[in-house]
Amino acid sequence: MVLKDYKSDFLKNRNILVTGASRGIGKTLSITLSKYGANIIMLGKNEKLLDQIYDEIKDTYNTNPLIIASDLNNLDENKAQEVANVIIEEYGYLDALINNASILNKMSLIEDYDLKAWEKVLKINLTSAFLLSKYSIPIMKNSSIPRIIFTSSSVAKKGKAYWGAYSASKAGAKVLSEIISDELESISKFKIFNFNPKATQTDMRSLAYPAEDPTMIKKPEELIKYYLWMLSSESSYSKSTYLEYGDSI
């Protein structure tokens, strides 16, 4: 992929909802997309961390960020509608939803997998993405470049031992993105992407690979140009819905 440099006002006045915004890739997206002029709606459950990011954005960039404190494990139809209502009240419409929040929870044999742990992973990684997408689509129809981006994983394409609910949830999210893409195909301005960042320095990566030296893998900042491309008008011509770090398009 040839990744271009984007102007500092590239995302000016674009309203972008990022889940899992308090740390890792979500935090990096929140701060860096603000740098390009976006109004970031940060959704997460750790209000203290979100407040710190909010203050950093307000002190550094001339944008209008917003915090929506929400535990995705408790998200239901009513709460998803409330999220959409807050965005409408504050901005009028939404330009992009980045379904980034995920948990790993545990790695074990299926025969040892606890049902409550399984349900929690599916709820946060898949069901919340379904609900937020469902209630975001109607408020994105006034956007000139509407986008829904799912953060994927290599185990979404092929199941792997011990990855249990995480692998199942990411495979489900991949199919969900394909369903939404197919349903919205007649609305040409909509684009749906599933992006696999591959090995990246995050808390989840450390949990999955505790013996790995984190300094040997890339930081979240190295992913930004991919997200910028997906948010750009150039990606409107792409036939791909599933992308991986390093892919050529």
Structural account:
This protein is an alpha/beta fold. 41% of the residues lie in helices and 13% in strands. Helix 3 (77-91) packs parallel to helix 4 and helix 4 (115-140) packs parallel to helix 5. The mean pLDDT is 90.
Low-confidence stretches: none
Alpha-carbon distance between the two ends: 5 Å
**SSE sequence, one letter per element:** EHEHEHEHEHEHHE
What number is the mean pLDDT?
90
Helices and strands: which structural class?
alpha/beta
- Portion of residues in helices? 40-55%
What is the number of E strands? Answer: 7
**Outline, from the CA principal axes?**
globular
Task: Figure out the total of helices.
Answer: 7
Strand order in the sheet with the most strands: 3-2-1-4-5-6-7
Radius of gyration: 17 Å
Largest beta-sheet details: 7 strands, parallel
What is the percentage of strand-forming residues? Answer: 5-15%
Provide the fold topology:
Layout: E1 15-19, H1 24-35, E2 39-44, H2 47-60, E3 66-69, H3 77-91, E4 96-99, H4 115-140, E5 147-151, H5 164-183, E6 191-196, H6 203-208, H7 224-231, E7 242-244
Parallel strand pairs: 1-2, 1-4, 2-3, 4-5, 5-6, 6-7
Helix pairs in contact: 1-2, 3-4, 4-5
Give a brief rundown of this model:
This protein has seven helices and seven strands. The chain is of the alpha/beta class and 249 residues long.
